[in-house]
Specification:
39% helix; 23 strands; 14 helices; binds NADP nicotinamide-adenine-dinucleotide phosphate
């Protein structure tokens, strides 16, 4: 079995202790990755700090050219990467290829953005002065990434942080560290100077504690659960450590009477079942207006029954396994709880009778607000649907959540679309669009879905300090 090394200060490093990586389709271990302890993480921070002055001194174009070389490597190896993503995460191969394409696009977008980290000159208030606003890199950035999009969510942090002139240490999720190890190979192939990018793995708590306590680590960027995000906020108090947090979500999908119903069904299918429902922007509540409720349910349940579920390498598979037994059990509990609260099970609802953590794609109708799945993230291919009457009612219900990451609506009414844009409490809003994320536009949450934004110009700004320089020129 292949044991993947870490990447520390320009060298691939093997250690005795490893993490075993399981394929959730077969439940078998297929690879291992080496781990390090807190003292070695402190050394990585010191090495990243030492690498910072030379990296920041490069022109933005030169840093961008390095990112483009990494992108070229990823693209050249995209099929190999996609197979590994499917092995460690379970998602269908075509979706892993989609994740590769988006990772490459993020790298190329931020390679160009490096050249556009503009400051500005501000008209003076007082004679004899000139005011400049300048942007400078922060220093060592620590990135902690989750397992559901193991490559692209890491790249969303690494690319802008490096483009801005920072050095980066990545700690990937223990369930899916192999594509991160392969990313380190691409960094090596692109010949980045030593210490500019490093990969660590091991106890998440210990590694994060070093990032939090070490004053040389200037920023932590995290994607994961709201619970861990909250613990990072508490830990950040000591050093007043800046945090970017991409946390949980509970997206509503709203289908109005006037929607193109087929497009709404298609959009709801994508928002719910892509990535086996294990996406932070996955729909968790589908509200359908009374006039089209029965028709929507009929079409949506029919299409859900047709979804082929299985090993991500099987031809035609659209839904893979859950990441582990715990994820599967949580989904089964949510289904049982909804039925106990009076929901109707239209299809699915059971673990599949095969090896692996497979759940039948599930549709629940008439789900009452009291059911756990209407407030907690299910993170599975389980779609709770319920009817609504008016715009005001559904906007209020959509906003009744601790989360505010994404929301979707299907309508042909432009006035309604503008009201939704203004009133829905979500960082990303898809109107007649189930796949809104793109490199050029900001992505992130409000309320307990997080702090800050990734992607777009905002994604670059998250890794830059803003300074005001007042020049006394006497002219
Ligand atoms: P998680 O358990 O919070 O883990 C995320 C990362 O944090 C992993 O690398 C994990 O390492 C690490 N971690 C675990 N405990 C930690 C601690 N005490 N201190 C610091 N780091 C720690 O989340 P997950 O289960 O991987 O991901 C699912 C969650 O992420 C969902 O809530 C989902 O909505 C959210 N998510 C949000 C976004 C977004 O952009 N807003 C995107 C994707 C996912 P180990 O794996 O080693 O435990």
């Amino acid at each position: 079995m292949k044991v993947y090394p870490l990447y520390l200060n320009g060298k691939f490093v093997t250690t005795q202790k490893t993490i075993r990586v399981v394929n959730p389709s077969s439940t078998e271990v297929f690879a291992e990755i080496c781990t390090i302890d807190r003292a070695a993480v402190a050394q990585a921070v010191a090495d990243a700090h030492a690498a910072f002055p030379a990296w920041r001194a490069l022109t933005a174009k030169a840093r961008g050219d390095f990112l483009k070389k990494i992108a070229d490597e990823l693209e050249r190896r995209r099929e190999e990467f996609a197979r590994v993503i499917t092995m460690e995460n379970g998602k269908p191969l075509a979706q892993s290829m989609g994740e590769m394409a988006m990772s490459v696009d993020h790298l190329r977008w931020f390679a160009e953005e490096a050249r556009r980290a503009y400051g500005r000159i501000v008209p003076q208030q007082t004679d004899g002065k000139r005011h400049l606003v300048v942007k400078t890199p922060m220093g060592v950035v620590a990135a902690i990434s989750p397992w559901n999009f193991p490559l692209v969510l890491a790249v969303r942090k690494i690319a802008p942080a490096l483009a801005a002139g920072n050095t980066v240490i990545l700690k990937p999720a223990s369930a899916t560290p192999i594509c991160a190890a392969m990313f380190a190979e691409c960094v090596e192939a692109a010949k980045l100077p030593k210490g500019v990018f490093q990969l660590v793995a091991g106890s998440a708590r210990e590694i994060a504690q070093e990032f939090l306590d070490n004053p040389l680590c200037r920023k932590i960027t995290f994607t994961g659960s709201t619970e861990v995000g909250r613990s990072l906020i508490q830990g950040a108090a000591k050093e007043i450590k800046p945090l970017s947090l991409e946390l949980g979500g509970h997206a509503p999908v709203i289908v109005f009477d006037d929607a193109d119903l087929d497009a709404a069904v298609e959009g709801a299918m994508i928002t719910k079942f892509r990535n086996t429902g294990q996406s932070c922007i996955a729909s968790n509540r589908i509200y359908v207006q009374r006039g089209v409720y029965d028709k929507f349910l009929e079409k949506f349940a029919a299409q859900t029954r047709m979804l082929k579920t299985g090993d991500g390498f099987e031809e035609g598979v659209l839904v893979g396994p859950l990441i582990n037994e715990e994820g599967l059990n949580k989904a089964l509990e949510h289904i049982q709880d909804a039925v106990t609260h009076g929901a109707k099970l239209l299809c699915g609802g059971k673990r599949m009778n095969r090896k692996g953590y497979f759940l039948e794609p599930t549709v629940l109708a008439d789900v009452p607000t009291a059911a756990a799945c209407m407030t907690e993230e299910t993170f599975a291919p389980v779609a709770p649907v319920c009817p609504f009457n008016s715009d005001d009612e559904v906007i209020e219900r959509a906003n009744q959540s601790q989360y505010g990451l994404s929301a979707y609506a299907f309508t042909r009414d432009l006035k309604r679309a503008f009201r939704l844009m203004e009133l829905l409490e979500a960082g990303t809003i898809g109107i007649n669009d189930g796949v809104p994320t793109t490199s050029q536009c900001p992505f992130g949450g409000i309320k307990q879905s997080g702090w800050g934004r990734e992607l777009g110009v905002e994604g670059m700004d998250a890794f830059l300090e803003t300074k005001h320089v007042s020049l006394g020129l006497g002219i």
